[in-house]
Write a structure and sequence with these properties.
Blueprint lengths: L1 H9 L7 E4 L2 E2 L1 H4 L19 E2 H12 L10 E4 L7
Parallel strand pairs: 1-4, 2-3
Length: 84
């Protein structure tokens, strides 16, 4: 769907991208389960869950002019879980 939107909206110079973070340790996520800090971390290539600072760079990239030639993409920041 993101690729199709990127293609359809590109003629109007609009970008369509998706941000897909993995488990991110926030005050809210830490209250969801007892083992939130380690839940699923063993399945990630980096062997830990993300922190806000790990994720914010990707968000800033998509919101900035650095991504002016990026459209129809899904930016996955999940510590390498998609490979496992």
């Amino acid at each position: 769907m993101t690729r199709l939107m990127g293609k359809e909206l590109g003629g109007a110079n609009l970008h369509a991208n998706v941000f897909a973070p993995g488990i991110t340790l926030t005050d809210a996520s830490m209250t969801l389960m007892e083992d939130a800090k380690t839940y699923g971390a063993d399945r990630a290539a980096l062997k830990r869950n993300g922190e806000v600072d790990d994720i914010s760079g990707g968000v800033l990239y998509l919101a900035s002019d650095l991504s002016k030639y990026t459209s129809g993409q899904t930016l996955v920041i999940d510590g390498g879980k998609q490979f496992i």
